[in-house]
């Protein structure tokens, strides 16, 4: 019984990996936005990323 | 060879009524002519069942009244398709390190098939029969002795002196309370091979583990059997039977994962759709640092996009804010990545830290026209940084295979660990507590 459950589980894992790969899933984190104004193309400074204002850690160097 | 039982019903054992010469109590002989001794239920005297006058073999003071047989004498049941009647019961004891261990033996009888035995120890049951041929000692070198029987190898489990301290009913030998036998058990779960040496004669028997509920069902007993405590010497492991199959399954699934990885690597688009080279000097000119790239097309089905940054950093860092923006819909993926690389020399020699390159994968991006908004940040005291940005469409992500492999491996390791723990519990009660795990029979 455990063997059948394990095989079913394993096939589910394979299917999930295949699905993730086919649909281009990613483990990286990012912020998704929907209506970025078209003006950004002409004026990049009109848009600020949530990741802006980065503080680099230099301690210990 | 035993004659076939008559059709249309099981054999009916012959029952004879006699009287005990010691107390005058009624004696019932269920295996008339085949039992060697019978115990008077009234006074406990052991009588010679082969003697028409039931000569007294032994009288003893019955001290065990609080340990009645779980299967009452006279109960009939079906074992391996044959009807048997419980005709005898004895309690036996071994003493190990001044601790007494008791088990119970039930003598079963069928007039056509003869005798059979059931043993019970702390809720663990064994169906026992006398060996039809002698086991042979194994010549192969092992940590503990082995014997071979009917093509199977049995590993020595325990040797001890057993004492009979309570008897009831009929026995196919001249039983005595207080008789001692040297008992040696060899196991090949779910079977056990027992050699019982008494008066220079060794009797070999073969037993097979039976769950208590099967015994209850076979004898149609009311209630439920006593729960099994601990792991018994020949108890089949619920894990070991699956162990080989699970590892074979794991190998097959891991191979499937490998094939999938090769397939996706071969058939992934993995095409470069944009490349750009840039130079950033922090704080100069004092103007907006962000800029946008030319548009590029992401084709095919919705799939991932990898943005790779390559720099010429040396003891420096740069942080890049990226936004991948769909020119038509305004949909955007906002992300950032620091790239830093340091190197030097110290007392241990040369060292490096970080990397000059970094990559990030944007998930499930629909096809369309896109551009990147890039906003670099860096220290003003450091020299300018030259960097290139490359965008690739539909790249294989190897981390998924790693996670999948671990997800397949963990249950296989868990069941292996459970199996090893079970075997450790089994062998901790043996004469070889550090014995290696043996293969089980099916």
Structure described in brief:
In chain A, about 35% of the residues lie in helices and about 5% in strands. With about 60 residues, chain A is mainly alpha-helical.
What does this structure look like?
The complex is a heterodimer of chains A (61) and B (442). Chain A is mainly alpha-helical and 61 residues long. Chain A is built from one helix and one strand; from the N terminus they run H-E. Chain A has one helix at 2-22; one strand at residues 31-33. The model of chain A has no long low-confidence stretch (mean pLDDT 83). Chain B has 442 residues and is mainly β. In chain B, a hairpin with a 2-residue loop joins strand 6 and strand 7. In chain B, helix 2 runs antiparallel to helix 3. At the A-B interface, helix 1 and strand 1 of A face helix 2, strand 18, strand 20, strand 21 and strand 22 of B.
Low-confidence stretches of chain B: 1-10
Which structural class best describes the helix and strand composition of chain A? mainly alpha
Described by the principal axes of the CA atoms, the overall outline of chain B is: rod-shaped
- Tell me about the biggest sheet of chain A? none
SSE topology:
The complex is a heterodimer of chains A (61) and B (442).
Chain A: H1 2-22, E1 31-33
Chain B: E1 16-19, E2 26-29, E3 37-39, E4 46-48, E5 56-58, E6 76-79, E7 82-96, E8 99-110, E9 114-121, E10 124-130, E11 136-137, E12 146-149, E13 152-171, E14 180-188, E15 191-198, E16 201-210, H1 212-218, H2 240-267, E17 271-280, E18 291-292, E19 296-298, E20 303-311, E21 316-326, E22 332-346, E23 349-355, E24 357-365, E25 368-377, E26 385-393, H3 398-428
Antiparallel strand pairs in B: 1-2, 3-4, 3-13, 4-5, 6-7, 7-8, 7-13, 8-9, 9-10, 10-16, 11-12, 12-13, 13-14, 14-15, 15-16, 17-26, 18-25, 19-25, 20-24, 20-26, 21-22, 21-25, 22-23
Helix pairs in contact in B: 2-3
């Amino acid at each position: 019984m455990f063997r059948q459950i394990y095989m079913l589980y394993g096939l589910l894992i394979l299917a999930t990996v295949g699905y993730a790969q086919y649909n281009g899933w990613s483990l990286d984190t990012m912020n998704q936005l929907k209506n970025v104004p078209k003006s950004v193309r002409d004026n990049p400074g009109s848009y600020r990323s949530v990741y802006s204002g980065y503080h680099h850690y230099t301690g210990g160097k | 060879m035993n004659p076939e039982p008559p059709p249309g019903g099981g054999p009916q054992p012959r029952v004879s009524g006699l009287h005990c010469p010691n107390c005058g109590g009624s004696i019932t002989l269920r295996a008339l002519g085949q039992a060697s001794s019978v115990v008077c239920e009234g006074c406990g005297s052991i009588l010679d069942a082969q003697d028409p006058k039931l000569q007294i073999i032994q009288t003893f003071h019955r001290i065990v009244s609080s340990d009645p047989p779980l299967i009452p004498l006279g109960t009939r049941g079906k074992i391996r398709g044959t009807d048997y009647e419980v005709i005898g019961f004895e309690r036996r004891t071994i003493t190990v390190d001044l601790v007494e261990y008791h088990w119970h033996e039930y003598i079963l009888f069928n007039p056509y098939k003869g005798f059979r035995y059931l043993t019970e120890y702390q809720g663990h049951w064994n169906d026992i029969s006398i060996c039809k041929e002698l086991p042979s000692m194994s010549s192969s070198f092992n940590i503990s002795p082995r014997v071979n029987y009917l093509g199977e190898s049995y590993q020595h489990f325990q040797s001890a002196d057993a004492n009979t301290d309570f008897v009831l009913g009929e026995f196919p030998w001249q039983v005595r309370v207080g008789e001692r036998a040297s008992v040696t058990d060899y196991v090949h779960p779910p079977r056990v091979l027992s050699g019982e040496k008494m008066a220079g004669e060794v009797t070999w028997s073969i037993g097979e583990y039976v769950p208590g509920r099967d015994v209850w069902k076979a004898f149609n007993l009311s209630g439920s059997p006593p729960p099994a405590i601990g792991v018994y010497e020949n108890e089949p492991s619920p894990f070991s039977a699956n162990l080989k199959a699970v590892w074979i399954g794991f190998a097959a699934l891991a191979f499937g994962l490998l094939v999938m990885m090769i397939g996706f690597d071969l058939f992934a688009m993995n095409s470069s759709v944009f490349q750009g080279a840039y130079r950033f000097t922090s704080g100069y000119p004092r103007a907006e640092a962000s800029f946008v790239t030319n548009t590029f097309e992401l084709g095919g089905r919705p799939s991932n996009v990898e943005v790779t940054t390559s720099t010429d950093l040396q003891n420096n860092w740069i942080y890049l804010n990226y936004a991948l923006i769909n020119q038509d819909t305004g949909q955007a993926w906002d992300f950032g990545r620091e790239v830093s690389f340091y190197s030097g020399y110290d007392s241990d020699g040369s060292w490096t830290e970080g990397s000059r390159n970094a990559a990030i994968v944007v998930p499930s991006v629909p096809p369309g026209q896109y551009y990147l908004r890039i906003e670099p940040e860096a220290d003003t005291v450091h020299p300018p940084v030259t960097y290139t940005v490359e965008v690739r469409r539909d790249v294989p992500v190897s981390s998924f295979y790693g996670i999948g492999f671990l997800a397949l491996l963990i249950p296989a390791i868990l069941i292996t660990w459970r199996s090893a723990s079970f075997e450790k519990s089994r062998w901790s009660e043996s004469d070889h507590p550090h014995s290696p795990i043996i293969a089980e029979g099916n």
